[in-house]
């Protein structure tokens, strides 16, 4: 996901897969989840620092950044009980700098899926990690996920002969 030599589509796919796994797989330990969240947050902060002169939400130019942010927000929203189960855990979660990330000029909440943005905003407000409701995160019907699906489907069509028939059928329905 952080390898710049990979295409944007591959990096987004890796991000969505890892985030989904971290958020929903019960066999992922809280320690492993924290390790991955720290890496994701660090990458996002470095990205924001490198693009601090950028203003607005340009999903095409910053697709990987928005995918990583959405993944980070998704995991925090759905695994918050494991993150803030103690005072030490709450301090650790605050150390991710989510408030700074949310209020950056790139506005990472804007292209997020509405359900992810709403749940993340509610969780971070409850635990006073970040207050997201002052940031405009309602967006037009474009999202990182939509761009990912379009690009991925185009790439998938070229790989149909290589991939197993059951996965190819799944891709056609997608």
Account of the 3D structure:
By secondary structure, the protein is mainly alpha-helical. The chain has one domain. 62% of the residues lie in helices and 0% in strands. The chain has helices at residues 8-24, 30-50, 63-78, 80-83, 87-94, 98-102, 114-126, 144-158, 165-173. Helix 3 crosses helix 7 (114-126). The longest helix has 21 residues, at 30-50. 33% of the residues are buried. Residues 138-144 and 156-174 have low confidence and may be disordered.
Would you kindly provide a brief summary of this structure?
This protein is 62% helix and 0% strand.
Mean pLDDT: 80
Q: What count of structural domains?
A: 1
Which spans have pLDDT < 50 for at least 5 consecutive residues?
138-144, 156-174
The count of helical stretches stands at 9
Question: Terminal Cα separation, in Å?
Answer: 23 Å
Helix content: 55-70%
Biggest sheet architecture: none
Helix and strand sequence: HHHHHHHHH
User: What is the structural class?
Assistant: mainly alpha
State the shape.
globular
C-alpha Rg (nearest Å): 17 Å
Q: How many runs of DSSP E, i.e. beta strands?
A: 0
Q: Strand content of the residues, in percent?
A: under 5%
List keywords for this structure.
mainly alpha, single chain, disordered C terminus, 174 residues, 9 helices
Secondary structure elements and pairings:
Blueprint: H1 8-24, H2 30-50, H3 63-78, H4 80-83, H5 87-94, H6 98-102, H7 114-126, H8 144-158, H9 165-173
């Amino acid at each position: 996901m952080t390898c710049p030599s990979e295409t944007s589509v591959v990096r987004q796919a890796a991000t969505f897969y890892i985030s989904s796994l971290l958020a929903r797989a019960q066999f992922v330990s809280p320690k492993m989840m924290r390790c991955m969240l720290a890496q994701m947050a660090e990458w996002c902060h470095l990205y924001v620092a490198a693009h601090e002169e950028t203003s607005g939400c340009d999903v095409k130019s910053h697709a990987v950044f928005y995918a990583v942010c959405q993944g980070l927000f998704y995991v925090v929203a759905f695994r918050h009980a494991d993150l803030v189960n103690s005072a030490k855990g709450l301090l650790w979660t605050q150390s991710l700098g989510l408030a700074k990330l949310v209020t950056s000029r790139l506005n990472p909440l804007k292209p997020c899926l509405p359900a992810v943005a709403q749940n993340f905003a509610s969780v971070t407000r409850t635990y006073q990690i970040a207050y997201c409701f002052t940031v405009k995160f309602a967006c037009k019907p474009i999202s990182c996920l939509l761009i990912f699906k379009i690009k991925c489907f185009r790439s998938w069509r070229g790989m149909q002969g290589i991939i197993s028939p059951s996965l190819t059928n799944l891709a056609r329905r997608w």
